[in-house]
Design goal:
The protein is an alpha+beta fold. It folds into 3 domains: 86 residues, Rossmann fold (3-Layer(aba) Sandwich), CATH 3.40.50; 118 residues, ATP-grasp fold, B domain (D-amino Acid Aminotransferase, Chain A, domain 1, 2-Layer Sandwich); 68 residues, Dna Ligase, domain 1, CATH 3.30.1490. Helix content is 33%, strand content 28%. The strands form 4 sheets. It has a 5-stranded antiparallel sheet. The structure holds adenosine-5'-diphosphate and magnesium ion. Adenosine-5'-diphosphate binds next to strand 8, strand 14 and strand 15. InterPro entries: ATP-grasp, ATP-grasp_RimK-type, Rp_bS6_RimK/Lys_biosynth_LsyX. One of its GO terms (molecular function) is metal ion binding. This is Ribosomal protein S6--L-glutamate ligase. Keywords: ATP-binding, Ligase, Metal-binding, Nucleotide-binding, Ribonucleoprotein, Ribosomal protein.
Length: 295
């Protein structure tokens, strides 16, 4: 069996490459030939006879499946139109990547999330009215969380306790889309990352960060394996299914009664930290799942 794993050629994070390497190594053990290909080495193409195709900078075997470890939505669409099966599917990646689309999809299945308002589409710097800003604080509370719709590792997630700073940030975004969200104070500095493959919960990792409301490991959060409650498992699975994912990492917050609320769902999930704390070989489970899905 031949497979490709497509990753982003521009991102130089070590964590990304380690994950790709781990999948390639596990594939070898299973007798699968998995080619690691940066998206920048593939050329989606339209020929002059009206057909579509794909060229690559090096010679590649025809894949039976593609692990799409990138957010190059155009490339994903192009490959699906050519008939390739992508893990995850393009629609799931596209919805997870965009925090407003993700909420829109989850609302179709009435999944519990923090109260969220989607910012208006603007052109470049556009100062929203004082009325708009007042309304945001009235609706969401004395503190407000702003998230750029495209963001990872908690790096595009900000918290504000006054109008001036929020207005300043909105200007700084210069037209980049955002959502505004109620802060779940009982969950500041802690959340749970649930790893799911197929429709099976693999496990949960509690993440804690003493000095920041964001619990992301990349920012400095500490991970610890936890036994998930039935309610946490159910909610995480519901979100995973709603978004149509093959594999995912669902982030759960804790409400005042420690009951779960979905923070976000990640399609391009880096499960290396979970592997470290759990000892579970997620790469192997993922490949087993993919093989099982093949006709
Ligand atoms: N509404 C919220 N209330 C409390 N904490 C939050 C809220 N939203 C996000 N967080 C914290 O910030 C972290 C990053 O937010 P998240 O939406 O997951 O963005 P990213 O995609 O960058 O990881 C979460 O893991 C959580 O710890
Ligand atoms: Mg997150």
């Amino acid at each position: 069996m031949n497979g490709w794993i497509i990753y982003n050629g521009a991102l130089k994070f070590k964590k990304f490459h380690l994950l790709v390497e781990s999948l390639v190594a596990e594939s070898k053990k299973k007798g699968i030939q998995l080619e690691a290909i940066p998206n920048s080495e593939l050329l989606p193409m339209f020929h002059s006879d009206g057909t579509q195709g794909l060229k690559s900078l090096r010679s590649l075997n025809e894949p039976d499946f593609i692990i799409f470890w990138d957010k190059d939505i155009y490339l994903a669409k192009h490959l699906e139109a050519m008939g390739y099966r992508l893990f995850n599917r393009r629609v799931a990646i596209e919805n997870c990547d965009h925090k407003a689309y993700m909420h829109l999809q989850m609302a179709q299945d009435t999944i519990r999330v923090p109260k969220t308002i989607v910012g208006p589409f603007t052109f470049h710097q556009h100062e929203l009215s004082g009325e708009y800003i007042d309304y945001i604080f009235e609706e969401l509370g004395s503190e407000v969380i702003l998230k750029e719709v495209f963001g990872s590792f908690g790096m595009q997630v900000y918290k504000f306790n006054n109008k001036e700073d929020l207005i300043h940030k909105m200007k700084e975004l210069d037209g980049r889309d955002f959502i505004l969200q109620e802060p779940i104070k009982s969950s500041f500095g802690r959340d749970i990352r649930v790893t799911i493959i197929g429709n099976q919960v693999i496990g949960g990792m509690k993440r804690e960060f003493a000095t920041d409301f964001r619990a992301n490991i990349t920012l400095g959060g500490r991970g610890e394996l936890v036994e998930l409650t039935e309610e946490q498992e159910k909610l995480a699975l519901k979100a995973h299914r709603s978004l149509g994912l093959d594999f995912s990492g669902v982030d759960l917050l804790f409400d005042e009664d420690d009951r779960p609320i979905v923070c976000e769902v990640n399609s391009n999930v880096n499960y290396l930290s979970f592997e470290q704390v759990s000892g579970v070989n997620v790469s192997r489970l993922l490949l087993d799942y993919i093989v099982g899905e093949m006709p």
